[in-house]
């Protein structure tokens, strides 16, 4: 089984906004050498989620994890993203597609931010 991980971010008009996400993509790829690691954006930036999924499938992915790199579950993750994933499942019925939780809600991420903010 070929695995892909898509880091799904909001997107912004300023291209510099994507730099931390590109660094995150590279860091994840270094820790998951057997997986395709890609970025996708909800709006303003490319690729969008559909394009990233299609590219992963075209490159041989049979299993795909979508990881929202959002701080919390808001309207986009509760309403928009499930609709996008349902459409992707219809277009790629053989793909095992898994949605993971928002990274900002993970205890380890909150602890890392607290250490950074507190200067530890």
List keywords for this structure.
globular, 120 residues, single chain, four-stranded parallel sheet, 4 helices, Rossmann fold
Question: Summary?
Answer:
43% of the residues lie in helices and 20% in strands. It is of the alpha/beta class and 120 residues long.
User: Approximately how much beta-strand content do the residues carry?
Assistant: 15-25%
Main sheet attributes: strand count, strand direction, barrel closure: 4 strands, parallel
How many DSSP H or I helices?
4
Radius of gyration: 15 Å
Notes on the protein architecture:
This protein is of the alpha/beta class and 120 residues long. The protein has a single domain, classed as Rossmann fold (3-Layer(aba) Sandwich). It is built from 4 helices and 4 strands. It has helices at 19-31, 49-58, 75-91, 107-118, and strands spanning 3-9, 35-41, 63-68, 96-99.
Secondary-structure topology with pairs:
Elements: E1 3-9, H1 19-31, E2 35-41, H2 49-58, E3 63-68, H3 75-91, E4 96-99, H4 107-118
Parallel strand pairs: 1-2, 1-3, 3-4
């Amino acid at each position: 089984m070929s695995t892909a991980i898509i880091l799904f971010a909001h997107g912004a008009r300023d291209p510099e906004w994507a730099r931390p996400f590109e660094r995150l993509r590279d860091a994840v790829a270094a820790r998951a050498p057997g997986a395709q690691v890609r970025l996708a954006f909800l709006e303003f930036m490319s690729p969008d989620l559909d394009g990233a999924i299609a590219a992963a499938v075209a490159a041989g992915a049979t299993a795909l994890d979508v990881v929202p790199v959002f701080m919390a579950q808001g309207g986009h993750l509760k309403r928009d993203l499930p609709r996008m994933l349902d459409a992707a499942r219809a277009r790629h019925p053989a793909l095992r597609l898994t949605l993971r939780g928002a990274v900002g809600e993970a205890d380890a991420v909150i602890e890392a931010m607290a250490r950074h903010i507190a200067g530890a």
